[in-house]
Amino acid sequence: MIGIKENFPFKYTRFEKARIIGARALQIAMGAPILIDTDKIDPIEIAIEEFEKGVIPITVKRRSNRFVWLERHDMF
To answer: What CATH number is given to the structural domain containing 28?
Structure first.
């Protein structure tokens, strides 16, 4: 089975990875179903394993390059 993570055209940043794992660990701690077969009990370890297998149903929405650089003469 090919993981979801492999289909993305980008790599996650360390901040995105931490946010995804943290959010998923919170879901697991609150009683969400675990998406993989594992022996682990700690929600963070389960979330890390799910992330590595690419089965976490959380996506990252990145902003496109929306910043407009203004020259000094454009402001007046």
So the answer is: 3.90.940.10
